[in-house]
Design goal:
By secondary structure, the protein is mainly α. 76% of the residues lie in helices and 0% in strands. It has 4 helices and no strands. The radius of gyration is 20 Å and the shape is elongated. The N and C termini lie far apart (58 Å). The model has no long low-confidence stretch (mean pLDDT 85).
Length: 94
């Protein structure tokens, strides 16, 4: 029974290492500008349509303008983490 437990733990560790490699490979891939702009549009549509009381402090027009301005500044492909940081900075402004 101890051997079965040891082998299963060993296989679990090997599997988890494999999933980390897959995750890291995705993080290091550059995303095209078109895909990034589609992501900004998706976030804008979800925020304006699905978020309850999104216009509590800022009108929806201001929020849409800030997200559109951010979308227009995307000229080069980015890594997912860099894009996430920039999008989070824009969203935290409202």
């Amino acid at each position: 029974m101890k051997i079965f437990f040891t082998i299963s733990i060993f296989l679990l560790v090997l599997y988890s290492c494999n999933s980390v490699e897959k995750y890291n490979a995705h993080i290091n891939q550059v995303v095209t500008t078109d895909a990034l702009k589609k992501d900004v549009d998706f976030a804008k549509n979800k925020l304006l349509k699905k978020h309850v009381d999104i216009d509590w402090y800022h009108p929806k027009e201001v929020i849409a303008f800030r997200l559109d301005s951010f979308k227009n500044t995307i000229n080069d492909p980015m890594l997912p983490n860099d894009f996430s940081k920039q999008l989070t900075a824009v969203m935290s402004s409202f």
